[in-house]
Amino acid sequence: MVDLPITQPAPVPRRRRPALSWARYVGLATIGGLLILWSAASALGWASPLFLPSPARVWAALQRVAGQGYANATLAQHVAASLWRVGGALLAAMAVGVPAGLVIATSRIGRGILDPLIEFIRPLPPLAYLPLIIIWFGIGELSKVLVIAIAMLAPIVISTASGVRAASESQIQAARTFGATRWQVIREVMVPAALPSILTGIRIALGAGWTTLVAAELVAATRGLGYMIQSAAQFLVTDMVIAGILVISALATLSELGLRWVERRFLPWIGKA
Amino acid sequence: MASRAGSLALSHVSLHYGAGLAVLHDVSLTLARGEFISVIGRSGSGKTSLLNLAGGFVAPSSGQVSVDDRPVTGPGPDRAVVFQDDALYPWRSVRENVALPLKLRGMAPAARAERARAWLAEVGLQDHGDKPIWQLSGGQRQRVGLARALASEPEFLLMDEPLGALDAMTRDQMHELLLRLWQDSHAGALLITHSVEEAVFLSTSVIVLAPAPGHIVHREDFDFGRRFLCGEDPRALKSEPAFIAARERLLAAIHGKEPVHG
Fold first, then answer.
1. Helix (H/G/I), strand (E/B), else coil: B186
2. Lower CB count within 10 Å: N or C terminus of chain A?
3. Percent of chain A's residues with pLDDT above 90
4. B14-21: which pairs have CB atoms within 8 A and are 24 or more residues apart?
5. Tally of CA atoms within 13 A in the half-sphere of B114 that contains its CB
6. What angle separates helix A191-216 from helix A75-106, to the nearest 10 degrees?
């Protein structure tokens, strides 16, 4: 007997929309096109190798720094130093920023105190407050982490505060009818409702963190990707500068992919309720 | 109006926002445990405000809301609410949603999971406890909301158009489930609804509100729900002349007209 179509299980809906995978192809094509253009530009001598070394030379520079090292350290050591700074700054910014965002969202007095402070910090360029941080905290590791953390703080505070508003009036009222205290409403309703927004804040903060890294490693660093790039730039080792840029870009992409994984794994309800 | 023991009472309650907009004017009603009161009325007649007052979400501008002669000062587990948008928490599984009131009361994890399981079985969702809530249909979600409200074993069950978004067949099933749960829980039920038929079928008493500002224009007692619980067929009850006449009477009251006699 032949199975009727009606007895077959419904096809599992495809998770990714076709439009998105098209966007992915277009993205890959753009990157490929740029690489070809870059190769052509250096092969045909459109630009001097001093300004634009060929992809092969950049690749060689990458291998050189990975193997023998450059500017007193191997690539792994540079990467580790930078990751430690950005990661430590992210943890510090979250430890301060998430509670601060909750206070802004749930207390009028808290909002009155913290809102102007955040709005003061938010537009400041890191290079502007870097000297002050060095005067206050010296040229050690603390200053570097602090500069990055300050740059990361505002996005996390603002996204937490606005994320709390994602909890609907009735979700909060429901918790209150169960006899929830103010603190329980925050813990059981507001924080979970804010998680998607907090994650978005972390993504923006990481972007700001990588941006600030090079500035933070301007002063008295002996390791780090920013330091490596600046050392190379001083001697016009352009291939190493580009290699450093590509490594930072790869790390930022990896952290973005990691956050997307966290989102899919732990917050599968985003956009579905 | 003197309130009885085991009752939620609104006495001479008025509600206005600021100086101007009056929402409710001099509304009195008493909901005893074991009663089922439905409130119907046109949009803007203050039905939801009435529920918000009973729930303790807003305080009356004058008059008093009380439970057993104690004034209501805020929401509490004695008055559970089923919301129009189910107000479930998508970051919790179905069972964890039902268990939340028990968790907030300090019940141990194993005990509350067991109780939540039992309540889900009551509403026919025993196989859905581990699912995330977005995998449920609208009717299933409202049943989770109902199970969650009942899990806190309230004295009063306040419902704000919980069935408004459901299709007709699901609504009929929900009516029968609602009546059974109401009977088993011995709670007093207050239902805000747009559906006159639903009000007549479910309630021991129906209140009609008229707008601008909301005030009570009609009250009437019914026993169709109780007769259903005694075993009568719901279709037969809903096609009885008495049921149809009651529906027409309430519709006339809603629209401020004398009933049409045919």
1. coil
2. N
3. 46
4. B14/B60, B14/B61, B14/B62, B14/B63, B14/B213, B15/B46, B15/B49, B15/B53, B15/B58, B15/B60, B15/B61, B16/B61, B16/B213
5. 5
6. 140
- How many Cβ atoms are within 10 Å of A55's Cβ, its own excluded? 16
Task: Round to whole Å and give the CA distance between B76 and A113.
Answer: 32
Residue B259 has pLDDT above 50, yes or no: no
Give me the domain span that covers residue A98.
78-266
Helices (H) and strands (E) in chain B, counts: 9, 10
State residue B159's pLDDT score: 92
**A73 SS3 class:** strand
Mutate to test the interface with A, among B49, B104, B134, B144 (most CBs of A within 10 A): B104
CA distance linking residue B81 with residue B189, whole number of Å: 10
ipTM, interface predicted TM-score of the complex: 0.84
CA-based max dimension of chain A:
85
Which residues 239-268 of chain A have a CB within 8 Å of chain B?
267-268
Q: Does B254 touch chain A (CB under 8 A)?
A: no
Cβ atoms of residues B183 and B242 within 8 Å = no
Tell me how far apart the alpha carbons of residues A240 and A227 are, in angstroms, rounded to a whole number: 12
CATH number at residue A159: 1.10.3720.10
pLDDT tier at A10 (50, 70, 90 boundaries)? very low
Assess if residue A131 is contained within a domain.
yes
Residues in chain A within 8 Å Cβ distance of B89: 171, 188-189, 192
Determine, yes or no, domain membership for A226.
Answer: yes
Is A171 at the interface with chain B, CB within 8 A?
Answer: yes
Q: How far is CA A67 from CA A13, A74, A168, A243, B26, in A?
A: 47, 7, 55, 14, 85
Q: Identify which of A82, A121, A118, A84 has the alpha carbon closest to the alpha carbon of residue A103.
A: A118
The SS3 assignment for B35 reads coil
Question: Is the pLDDT at A8 greater than 70, yes or no?
Answer: no
In a domain? residue A33: no
CA-based max dimension of chain B: 61
